[in-house]
Amino acid sequence: MATARFHQALGTAQSHQHLQNSGSHHEFGNASLKLISKAFKADVGLSIRGGYSSCMRKSGVIQASTSQTSAQPVSYSPNNSSDVLRRKSSEAALILIRHGESLWNEKNLFTGCVDVPLTKKGVEEAIEAGKRISNIPVDMIYTSALIRAQMTAMLAMTQHRRKKVPIILHNENEQAREWGRIFSEDTKKQSIPVVTAWQLNERMYGELQGLNKQETADRFGKEKVHEWRRSYDIPPPNGESLEMCAERAVAYFKDHIEPQLLSGKNVMIAAHGNSLRSIIMYLDKLTSQEVINLELSTGIPMLYIFKGGKFIRRGSPAGPTEAGVYAYTRSLALYRQRLDDMLH
């Protein structure tokens, strides 16, 4: 019931940037992208109470850091039929990036779904993230609807050696689709479609948004604030719990991003600490206790390989001069060699 009330509120209260993608197509080069995401709305003004039922109880743990981690296969059960899965033998890269430092991170304020940009440090973190993934193929980009995630994706791609241009798809209505058309086939081939989705937004912190974290702890007590921030199923006043955030983020990942990976597309997701923790919980089969202890650094990309029906975690790429991460798979090693041959 809480789930229905929450998403009904999102459907009625978030109304600025409407991404209604059902049945529409966008073509970039040889890739035909069918967008079928639900309506996107950007303002948040809702009152929600009560908890969600538990989503996932799995095992496995991951630590996000600047160092590489050993490859670890993670079981995966796609929504698609096993016949489709068997036909797709190629591998695909999945890159996850938490946005760089935002202006409210710098001020130690609860941000949630308030749309604030990156700091100078955040810009530098996004550029550094781009250097780390500059040799990894990217065919599609997904970001949240918030500017700090979109800035991170765009800045990161300025460092990519292929020099393809990320282009945000606007699909609010027929006019938006028509006005955003690209008429050059060569330009399409040098473009990367960027899909924005509110489902990948940060956890909505309710009445804590805009409050100073230290002052809030002084007012309500450290234990209460810690409970709001680090429990799995207890939301802050009129906000989302991590469980509620996971429900929308993982559902979107399954419905829209997994099919792209299954078809062989290499995908980058630029999003937020809690929405990415939710996706990692799904990929690595973490328990609710393990996911609340998971920390993601700003601007540090994480690489997964989807191959043979499994997500294989590769850790964080060490940078374009470090060959190790690319040698984990034959496909990535060959891709990097092609880049070297093309650009030298």
TrEMBL record:
Its EC number is 5.4.2.11. PROSITE patterns: PG_MUTASE (PS00175). GO terms for biological process: glycolytic process. The active site is at residues 99, 202. Keywords: Glycolysis, Isomerase. One of its GO terms (molecular function) is phosphoglycerate mutase activity. It is an enzyme of class 5 (isomerase). This is phosphoglycerate mutase (2,3-diphosphoglycerate-dependent).
